[in-house]
Description:
This protein starts with 10 loop residues before the first helix and ends in a 6-residue tail after the last strand. The protein has two domains: 6-90, no CATH class; 114-382, Metallo-dependent phosphatases (Purple Acid Phosphatase, chain A, domain 2, 4-Layer Sandwich). It has helices spanning 11-21, 24-31, 35-62, 92-111, 145-148, 155-172, 210-231, 246-259, 298-305, 307-312, 347-351; strands at 69-76, 83-90, 125-134, 176-183, 234-239, 266-268, 276-280, 283-288, 315-320, 327-330, 335-338, 360-366, 370-377. It has a six-stranded mixed β-sheet, covered by helices on one side. Helix 4 crosses helix 7 (210-231). Helix 8 links the parallel strand 5 (234-239) and strand 6. It contains eleven helices and 13 strands.
Amino acid sequence: MKQSGPKGITDKQLIAAIEELGDKTAAAAYLGMNRRTLARRLERMREGRSADQRRGERVEFNEREDEVFKGRSVLWNPVTGEEKLEWIKTDRDKQKQLEALKEAAEALKSEIPKADPEPAPKSSNDDLCACYVLSDAHIGMLAFEEETGGDNWDTDIAEETLSRWIGAAVDAVPDAHTGLLIQLGDWLHFDGMVPETPTSKHALDTDTRFQLLVRVAIRTLRRVISMMLRKHQHVHVIMADANHDPASGAWLREMFAVLYEDDPRITIDTSADTYYAFQWGDVSIFAHHGHKAKIGSLSSIFAGKFRELFGATTYSYAHVGHLHHQQLKEDTMMITEQHSTLAAPDAYAAKGGYISKRSASTIIYHRKFGEVGRTTIRPEMLL
């Protein structure tokens, strides 16, 4: 900050004159200065002090661990230089992400010990792969049947439905060597402390707090994988990136990879991409949530992204969710299937007329002949 001005008058002397005389015009006359010159000096003093203050305090604020700071505004007394008011500006989006990650970390520490290996089945058909497709479970969503005209859905119903489904699905499939779990995303209905969509910030109907949602989502997914391990010699897990839970999908993939790292019978796809692939003999199997590409363009995307795998296989299948209803498209490259969900429609879906039958399928692939069978289970079959 500049310490002296015209005729060697320092900033301290200028402020002292104003305080003593109580008037800027009188102070300027006393100091032999022009009134406008004095005003410009005060403005430079204010700007200089504010900049110095910001430089001096920026590091202190960024080092705080409880908030994510975006900036700081200060109102100064232009005469005395005293701080009158202060505004601390935080980044709300980053703050929510930080809080969500803290909650997730606490839930993982308190709820998730390392998994003990499940006993392997005594025998299996080495030519078969059972593909379990779960799309858009939306754990944590609230649906009220009187409002939607459909069924109720909440955290407890979601956990019970998904648990009953995996029990029925495991019993229905043959003794395939490999179980492939394709969890197509939106496993959690919301992705942080505030129940809203991460990108569009649309308010969501929910029935639980985020930490409890984390616990239920992890517990349910563990139950699904554990039951598959009792049925199949090997289990491979794909958890797709999606629009409702992109951050939670990331830590779920990484956490489950650590959880089962001592069990050679299970592999977790930890790819950071939003498109996934798995090979079973002459069969290539692809997965994507459906929020980044429409069903009609997926075959070319998969063939381009996984060129070597696509070229090395005879049968190719792609699985997608997101829109909650079934659709099948076959072209010269592969069969792309859009899956429905076990979850009931919420108020947004019901009011928009997005109503479809609920189900989840398990598809049997032969390593030489592609799809050779499937089982479809609807929620009413689980009562």
